[in-house]
Write a structure and sequence with these properties.
Keywords: DNA-binding
GO molecular function: DNA-binding transcription factor activity; transcription cis-regulatory region binding
Order of helices and strands: HHHHHHHHHHH
Number of strands: 0
Distance between the termini: 57 Å
Protein name: TetR/AcrR family transcriptional regulator
Organism: Parahaliea aestuarii
Helix content: over 70%
Largest sheet: none
Strand content: under 5%
């Protein structure tokens, strides 16, 4: 099933008439193109992702592709914004409800947050964005696109972290805890050629749970 067919399936059964339907159809095509671009980045890499390939993955004509995005960099700009929004939503969905402010924070909850962070960095959206970050190092045009939004999105991400981890925020150690998880998890996720990766990741998850539990206990005793 193409990206366009997947997007259209979500709207099946809705009323379709007049200008409203045309706008919806246009939005479906645009979403299909962005989803297809993400898929291309994951499967083919940035250097091999062309507008023709994206159109093929999306199941749309070259004309429809050019209508929405007249150049490769135009679709990449839109994909960057698309991935930012998608990744924030995915992170919230994975983490929300783990840290319940009405209950004491347990090791089990801490471990669940670490395991969820590992799942997060293995999602296609994360892989696609890391592909863009790696390519931007030697591609000035792409680097400019990412720099345009990276700082703002980092701020939004931290806001989301604060909202879903109230215990950590109240003790003032949220940023260091978040940095520990994010930097370690990114490194683990990018080590795609590592041997016995599953076993080693499990060991690191246990170690990070230990470190976070100790950090939280230290902050809590300091506050008392």
């Amino acid at each position: 099933m193409t990206a366009a067919q997947k997007a259209a399936k979500k709207t099946r059964g809705r009323p379709r008439r007049g200008d409203g339907w045309q706008a919806e159809k246009s939005a479906i095509t645009r979403t299909a193109i962005l989803d297809a671009a993400e898929e291309c980045l994951v499967e083919r890499g940035y250097s091999r992702t062309t507008t023709a390939m994206i159109a093929e993955y999306a199941g749309v004509s070259r004309g429809a592709m050019m209508h929405h995005f007249p150049s490769r960099i135009a679709v990449i700009r839109a994909v960057v914004d698309h991935l930012h929004e998608k990744r924030l939503g995915e992170y919230r969905n994975l983490m929300e409800g783990i840290d319940n402010p009405e209950q004491a924070l347990t090791r089990e909850a801490i471990r669940k947050s670490v395991e969820s962070a590992w799942r997060y960095v293995n999602l296609p959206s994360f892989v696609a964005y890391q592909e863009l970050l790696a390519a931007a190092r030697t591609d000035p045009e792409l680097n400019d696109v990412l720099e345009r939004t990276e700082k703002d999105v980092e701020g939004l991400f931290l806001q989301t972290v604060k909202q879903v981890f109230p215990h950590w925020e109240s003790l003032g150690v949220l940023e260091v805890a978040n940095d520990l998880i994010q930097f370690c998890m990114r490194g683990m996720a990018l080590s795609h050629m590592a041997t016995n990766k599953k076993r080693r990741a499990k060991r690191m998850i246990e170690l990070m749970t230990d470190q976070l539990e100790a950090l939280y206990a230290q902050a809590e005793s300091g506050k008392a």
